[in-house]
What we know:
By secondary structure, the chain is α+β, with helices and mostly antiparallel strands. Among the domains are: 3-122, no CATH class; 256-404, no CATH class. Helix content is 33%, strand content 32%. The protein has helices spanning 3-16, 22-31, 88-100, 115-122, 128-135, 139-165, 173-181, 246-253, 300-304, 315-326, 368-371, 383-398, and strands spanning 38-45, 48-56, 62-73, 76-82, 186-195, 198-208, 215-226, 229-237, 258-263, 269-281, 287-293, 331-337, 340-349, 354-358, 364-365. The chain has a 4-stranded antiparallel beta sheet with strand order 1-2-3-4. The chain has a 4-stranded antiparallel beta sheet with strand order 5-6-7-8, covered by helices on one side. Strands 12-13-14-15 form a 4-stranded antiparallel beta sheet. α3 (88-100) crosses α4 (115-122) and α3 packs parallel to α6. It is elongated, with a radius of gyration of 32 Å. It starts with a helix and ends in a 6-residue tail after the last helix.
Amino acid sequence: METAINFYELKTQLADIGFNEPAIVDQLREAMFTEYNYASLYAERDNTRFQINLEKDYTGAFSFDTYDAILTSGHQLRDQVFSPNVPANEAILLLQNRLKRPDVTADIAGSPMNRQETRVSLGLSPNDHHEILKQINNPDELFAHKFKNAMNTQNLEFLKKALLNLGFGEQVNAELEKNINKKVPEFNLTAKHEFNQQKVDYKLHFKAGENQEMYFFNKFDTTLYKGKEKEQNQSFYINKGNGVTAKEAFNLMEGRAVYKQLYNKEGEGYHAWLQLDAQNLTQNGNKEIKRFSEGYGFDLDTVLQGKGIKELNTAESTENLYRSLKKGNTQQITVERNGEEKKYFISASPQFKTVDLYDHQMKKIKREELLKPEQKQTTGKKQGEQQKEDAPAKKQTRKTKMHV
């Protein structure tokens, strides 16, 4: 193929998808005379950098292979490889979509996206291109409209999913959608639960971001009742749909500890046990939250293994027990000793690197009854001396006071 014809065809193909800047035309003209089998053209617009990749075929003519688009905003970056039929403005909108969606943490950018895949991701129908040509002079106007509708739908679905994962179910979905459709800049919704015959009220706080394009679920206030009396209030904050669940909030307010994944200022994840500090309050009246990270040294395995707990006999029941304790629940266990089975309830107590023990009426009892070591044979003592030492221990057994 003659170089002039190759140049003209590529120039037309690039212009058709929006790459018609004089600088790109100059780069293309220069690339036509390179001896290499590959060439790249570069452009930049709307905080997005483009690399247009050209490749020679067996005849020595260049063809438009793919192009890379990289959008940067502050410390955030989104990138994607596109097929030659994807317009540049659609590529920009796709990356802006990914940047603004709070549930997007990583993009699979290596495989080229074609026109159909791009438009589906943007919420555009296959016929929208023809609609644009018929109805408006500026294609970006319709793209922006469709993009905004797609964003609203994704935002609503993300919030619904977050509410479901946080244990609020679907009880506020209708009111949530109504307020978002009305473009209310900030609103609260109420939810109710009952755990262990105790009523809990929640106030969920939602707020629109800039230009009301997206709504965020920022926090929820929890009110715990004992009978008809209001006992305490506590606020729990949500970060990108993640945080303490409705049940975990109840468990924390009951004084128990919850095991969660947290993030430091650099965005690095770590795990820690959380527990409310009744002795110290924040400026807004919340109880401070104490954190006991893995380096603190509390380990459920270390505390519970070897104590005759039947629920630790299999990997599956062990995982279920530990999962429940990490959510802050009190969990029933069965202890087998000397051929006898006893039922207890336990909850994690990370601050003291142990567990709390309860009877069948959920009254706290001394944890030594569970955590005592197995009796060991003593050597080097006379039988009479051994019997004298054993006698108090037998008496203490009746009072459930035994040495650790």
